Amino acid sequence: MSTILLGVALSGATRYACQAQCVEFSDRAPRADLDTFTKTPSSLFERLRNSKEKLKYQLASYVATDPTILPAVQTLIAEASSSDRSVIGAALRLAEARCTSTKRDAARKIREFVQRNGDLTVIAGYTAAGEDETGIQIPAQVQDGKQPARGAGLLEGEWKTKIADPFKPLPIPR
């Protein structure tokens, strides 16, 4: 009987832990790191002193692994400098993007956390990270699937050796 109760308790705890994460097992932050961050959020600043990029990706990994650590992120924001707050905002945007495809509810909680927080520097970093994601897109391809050559409209002819007429009307895209 006790074995059955233990099995039910463990399966319930495992089920809860699996529901909280937005990322696959191999991408999750170690539980010990999350516990350390939750107890002392400033430890992240101490470990990653001069590397804003590492700070951004590490914090995004923490939040994507366990979105329930957002209160610790609030403490981190309170202790952070202005430039670090911008990085924290970018990390929150990155974590939200990672959660959007798997756990929409967690992504919504992250977005609401940023809005509720009201720190303009965090919001600016969050917004800038969103613009970076949309700004990095694959260039549009032509109908036949080939990439347009650089300066494609400047030369004409079979071997593209003749200079094109600069006064020729441009084709209207459809």
Could you please describe the fold and organization of this structure?
The chain has 174 residues and is mainly alpha-helical. Helix content is 61%, strand content 2%. It has helices spanning 2-20, 31-39, 43-47, 52-65, 70-79, 82-100, 104-117, 120-135, and strands at residues 155-156, 162-163. Strand 1 (155-156) and strand 2 (162-163) form a beta hairpin. Helix 4 (52-65) crosses helix 6 (82-100) and helix 6 (82-100) crosses helix 8. The chain is elongated, with a radius of gyration of 24 Å.
In short:
The protein is mainly α. Helix content is 61%, strand content 2%. It has 8 helices and 2 strands, in the order ααααααααββ.
User: Which class of secondary structure composition applies to the elements?
Assistant: mainly alpha
Order of helices and strands: HHHHHHHHEE
Average pLDDT: 76
Distance between the termini: 71 Å
Low-confidence stretches: 10-19, 134-147
Strand segment count: 2
Helix content: 55-70%
Overall, the morphology is: elongated
Tell me the Rg in angstroms.
24 Å
Strand order of the largest sheet: 1-2
Features:
174 residues, mainly alpha, two-stranded antiparallel sheet, 8 helices
Summarize the topology.
Layout: H1 2-20, H2 31-39, H3 43-47, H4 52-65, H5 70-79, H6 82-100, H7 104-117, H8 120-135, E1 155-156, E2 162-163
Antiparallel strand pairs: 1-2
Helix pairs in contact: 4-6, 6-7, 6-8
